[in-house]
Amino acid sequence: MLRKLIATPDDYALTIVRVLLGVVMFPHGAQKALGWFHGYGFNATIHHLPGGPVVGTLVVLAEFVGSIGLILGFLGRAGAFGIIAVMLGAIALVHAPNGFFMNWFNDPTAKEGYEYHLLAIGMAAAVLIRGSGALSVDRLLFSHDRRRAR
Fold first, then answer.
1. What is the C-alpha to C-alpha distance for residues 108 and 93, in angstroms, rounded to an integer?
2. What does DSSP assign to residue 98?
3. Whole-angstrom Cα distance, residue 17 to residue 132?
4. Is residue 106 part of a domain?
5. Which residues fall within 8 angstroms of residue 124, CB to CB, at 6 or more apart?
């Protein structure tokens, strides 16, 4: 089971996708977990998000821990799955009624659409399907595990 979770090719394109997704998601997770970047912090976030404290805790873990995992390439598939779940939830519960576009240039007071979320889902899907790629802890562990199995 663990072997399938960490199995990944030595692919630099996956590395780029994984690291950039992790870097973009990290500030969002840090807002929710630590209150950085003008965020609410953990306690306020888990009670503020739709779905209550249990869902709020899962969102914080997915965005914060998942983004760190993506940056390092450690359990990248798990981090990618968490990001997909959060983005689908954000679309369904918050952003779908606002349409596709972010709407910042047309009306600075407009609510955000879901285009950003679709990009994050696409990037996370690539990591979920193929793995963390080159320059990842998963690749290091997978290579070590394969050598040991011989």
1. 21
2. G
3. 9
4. yes
5. 21, 80, 81, 83, 84, 87
- Supply the range of the domain harboring residue 48: 11-149
80 burial via Cβ count (<10 Å: 0-12, 13-18, 19+): buried
Task: Give the chain's domain count.
Answer: 1
Give me the amino acid identity at 61: L
Q: Does residue 127 sit within a domain?
A: yes
**Residue type for position 10:** D
Q: How many CB atoms lie within 10 A of CB 113?
A: 19
pTM value? 0.90
Query: What tens digit of pLDDT does each residue of 94-108 get?
Result: 899 988 988 777 676
Rg over CA atoms, the chain: 17
As a whole-number percent, the residues of the chain with pLDDT over 70 amount to: 93
Q: List pLDDT tens digits, range 19-63.
A: 999 999 999 999 999 999 999 999 999 998 888 899 999 999 999
